[in-house]
Automatic annotation (TrEMBL):
Cellular component, GO annotation: membrane
Protein location: Membrane
Signal peptide: none
Domain of life the protein comes from: Eukaryota
Region (Disordered): 1-20
Record-linked Gene3D superfamilies: MFS general substrate transporter like domains
Record-given protein name: Proton-coupled folate transporter
Amino acid sequence: MAQENEHITENNPNINSVNETPARPFRITMEFPLFFTMLSVSLSGAAISNLILFRTCVHSLNHTQEECQVFMSPAKNNGSHELEEEVQKYATFVSMVRTIIDSLAPAILSLFLGVWSDTHGRKPLVVWPLFGMSITAGLIVVYSMMDDLGPWWFILTSIPMSLAGGFTALFTGSFCYVSDITSTEKRSLRMTVVEASVSAGSVIGAVASSYLLRAVGNVYLLLISAALFLIAYLFTVTCLSESLAGAIPGNITSVLDFKLIKSMLSECFKKRPNHGRAQILLLTFANSLSIFIMFGQMSLLYMYTRKKLHWAIQQYTIYSATHTTISFFGSFFGVILVQRVFKVTDLAFATVAILSATTEYVINAFATTAWHMYAAAGISLFRGLSSPLIRSLLSKILPPQDIAKVFALMCAIEGVSPLVSPALYNSLYAYTISTFPGAIFILSSGISGLCALFLGFVQYFRWKSSSIVYENLTNES
């Protein structure tokens, strides 16, 4: 009976009958700019890592350009084992500082933006970050052309993107926008379509990266990446309509209002019946910890495969594309076939996705050959579903006026993650690179296991309640 009630809570279109989003025909909105944004990020990611490794080797460690040229090669070239280790140890701290600069302003802004968008609309949360990313991408092109600049100068290119809200603001605006324009019964699928557009951009960028690098070189590759950011920005400015009816135009001065934080916290932490507050917070922290892992591993996965498996950019980008493709098809297969045919709830499927990711991290930690990494990617087929399913579930069990506030809390926690996780992961990697570089994946598996435990508690609370309806999380006790 409890399982049936849970399913009714998540999928019954009559539950939100008062404030239900009216049915709208499907049209491309956030999918297009997110696709081009992730295409740009994926296209340039490994090339930027190689550039930082090369500049570190030449300018910070004072090796010759001939010795350091190994880091700029898109093909497999193992170079000196000692040089690789020395350069990676230094470069991880450059990457850590850059990630912190990237995330500092978004972490602060995330406390305000979600609630601010309830009044002033979702579109600014998409337009502002893409403008900042376009400026940052242009500065990276300039940096790549100036051969006499060391790796620490690269950090300055992050400032425009950071001040504009970064990926934290972009994804807050994107998911709130999608929630505004979709009905409850279609939300899981639409959230998955948005995630799929992110995956598709990542796959195509990863596949094309090494080939474009060979064809046009580093500078032109980064120039193409900057152009893609600009296309995404221009699309949102000219083609994206505001999703929030009655939105009042606002500016940056209206964002930093501490009443917005108070409003967010009061709604997210108010007592609700049937352990509603605990359910919301556990779901929020489970999703945010997954983002914590992602930011921690982001700059290290390529370095790990260079060190452990002796890959270069070509081998890594093929693996990255394969991994994302598997996750892409796993997401669609999961939502369209498995979830609908077998009537698996959002919560149960999200738990499966997180457990599969935990298994992947353990395999990666002890991988010794390439097929171990690919096998792990296959095992985590559904890992990409955890975030959209958790967001979808939250949007179904919350009243419409609270959705943006809870998403804002989620993004605020996610905004802090890049300030903490790179320091933790990079320090761990630097200290274990000579003995057990896979320690970062053991850490990830532990955190991922904690996420699964949080979802288990949510499932317990939902089973414990004999009747769970939408209003139970709407009204204060």
